[in-house]
From TrEMBL, chains A, B:
Residues 87-224 form the GST C-terminal domain. Pfam families: GST_C, GST_N. This is glutathione transferase. It comes from Polypedilum vanderplanki. Its main location: cytoplasm. It is found in: Cytoplasm. The lineage of its organism: Eukaryota, Metazoa, Ecdysozoa, Arthropoda, Hexapoda. Coiled coil: none annotated. Homodimer. Belongs to the GST superfamily. Theta family. GO terms for cellular component: cytoplasm. GO terms for biological process: glutathione metabolic process.
Length: 247, 247
């Protein structure tokens, strides 16, 4: 099985950590988003949506991180059950978060990151402050729900269950993203902070390995290091302007 | 098992149709969103997120339509396999769409509907035309992806598989929503139109039954019938203004 990924993508990092921690045998294939490798015709033949992460398992093509995770669990009976419990009720609680997080966590964190950091970094123009405030409010609401509802139970060490599950890894990776835009999602929310530390502890050294570039950008307060190739950033900018996604 | 729903909610309709078509034994409990029944403390004890749909199965509480669907499949081995195939690859293809649709279909259609129709209807103020155009473009992109990628295969009669699956019901219910804002999502896209007719045919009379109120609003070109209780609409408005979700 080939796993196509780029560690700049949150769900790519989540699956990377999961595959490494569980020692699942796959071939890691890096698709460099900065170099627009996802836009080639060659990669279109791998994933018709031209996104990472995705897999090809002996000719079978699949995208969407959560779908890939479930397929990995079903195809590798040796992976420990804690990641996706077999018991119907525990499994449903993991599923509940995995479905919730798309619009409940991923969207607010990603749109904030894109508006505050990604588009201004690529375009050289200051961020749209009105939109930044709007999306910051949406993200804060999401973080409060995380702190006060998802992490409210004393019965559970982790998000959905007593042991760590894939829900925890996926959520952490999404919550790291806005930190590159200088917003510390884990700060001033004691349950969130404690839970984040536990997830890191359970998944290291792979958690930190997957977040190396992310940590670099956080430490430089959002500034790009010279390792980022400007030529490709400008090409990337042309591409996202063309898509009009952020405008 | 108790199933809490309101047919104004897209995923409530999807699960309602699924439960009726498969004759799954549940107790249907209507939570009237217009009467703010989801905001009572009584309902908060049922679902901490105060949203529909949700279920309570002998004390076990679960929200998120796709998680509920998977739990229903695991708890009712008599439900026909076509809705969620057991074979790992076919199941993964259904999962791929179920995960994609949150941000790929549900979000663009719902935010357009809310901006163009829901907020103006409740507030009495004209829609924000700039935002309507922005969200319309996002929705059109989503519909084009539906027509040209998801429905491109000649090998499949339905979205993910040869037979109808839950992915088809869920997608149709999301695509009905913008029609209440006078945008016909099924028009001028021949594959989408044909597929919609097939899904209706496979799930009727329950599809039409679940969409009765939706059809009424579509036919009246977005105008509310006198059946909608204005007092509660104003209270609902106060609530959504308070939440600042649409602003």
């Amino acid at each position: 099985m080939k796993f196509y990924f780029d560690l700049l993508s949150q769900p790519s990092r989540a699956l990377y950590i999961f595959l490494k921690v569980t020692k699942t045998p796959v071939e890691f294939v890096k698709i460099d988003l900065k170099r627009l490798e996802h836009l080639t015709n060659e990669f279109k033949a791998v994933n018709r949506f031209q996104k990472v992460p995705c897999i090809v398992d002996n000719g079978f093509k699949l995208s969407e991180s959560v779908a890939i995770f479930r397929y990995l669990m079903q195809s590798n009976p040796n992976i420990s059950e804690n990641w996706y419990p077999k018991d119907a009720k525990s499994r449903a609680l993991v599923d509940e978060f995995l479905e919730y997080q798309h619009i409940g966590v991923r969207y607010p964190c990603a749109i904030y990151f894109q508006t505050k950091w990604l588009l201004p970094t690529f375009s050289g123009k200051p961020p749209n402050e009105k939109k930044v405030r709007e999306y910051e409010n949406l993200m804060i609401k999401s973080l409060d729900t995380f702190e006060n509802i998802w992490l409210a139970s004393d019965q559970k060490e982790f998000l959905a269950t007593k042991e760590i599950s894939f829900a925890d890894i996926l959520a952490c990776c999404e919550l790291e993203q806005p930190r590159m835009a200088d917003f510390d999602t884990f700060k001033d929310r004691p349950r969130l902070k404690k839970w984040h530390e536990k997830v890191k502890k359970e998944t290291n050294p792979y958690y930190d390995e997957a977040h190396k570039n992310v940590y670099d950008i956080i430490q430089s307060k959002g500034k790009l290091s010279s390792k980022f190739d400007l030529v490709f950033i400008y090409r990337y900018l042309r591409y996202i302007k063309f898509k009009k996604f952020f405008e």
